[in-house]
Specification:
about 150 residues; alpha+beta; Alpha-D-Glucose-1,6-Bisphosphate, Chain A, domain 4; seven-stranded antiparallel β-sheet; 5 helices; about 25% helix; globular
Length: about 150
């Protein structure tokens, strides 16, 4: 079974600049902060071959593979490892896609996630987490513009 979450924002900056900022892992710790039970990103280590290890504020790590890096329109990745429990009991993997499009003098950014659950039986416990994750995504997107230098 799969669940989805999505968020969007318009950043008052040019398309290429927003894409470059959003895909620069060095800035994730300023944009993707912890929120309640959702951990923030504290660092990213390049593992080579489009793979990276994401360190989270709860002390866990998540390995990812970048599957698309199409400047300035699209950026996608998927998890290679399960998240730490309790999320790992519910979610087997996640796939994310960011899309970027010109919107007047700014850039419209859309971030979507598709989560594959460990079992259909996990759905009743995972469903309440999706709105929390969606709010975390939205807050992260809202920090994109202010963190650009």
């Amino acid at each position: 079974m799969k669940l989805t979450a999505a968020a969007s924002v318009t950043v008052p900056r040019p398309l290429e600049a927003v894409y470059d900022h959003a895909t620069n892992a060095a800035g994730y710790s300023k944009v993707l902060l912890p929120a309640g039970i959702i951990p923030g990103i504290t660092g990213v280590e390049d593992l080579g071959s489009s793979r990276r290890r994401v360190s989270l504020s709860d002390g866990s790590t998540l390995d990812e593979e970048v599957t698309a890096l199409e400047r300035p329109r699209r950026y996608a990745y998927h998890w290679l490892t399960k998240p730490k429990a309790p999320f790992g009991w519910l979610i087997a993997t996640g796939e994310a896609e960011w899309t970027f499009e010109a919107a007047g003098s700014g850039t419209r950014v859309h971030w979507g996630y598709v989560f594959t659950l460990t079992s259909p039986l996990a759905a009743p416990l995972a469903l309440p987490i999706i709105p929390l994750f969606r709010r975390w995504m939205q807050k992260g997107l809202e920090r994109l513009g202010p963190t650009m230098s």
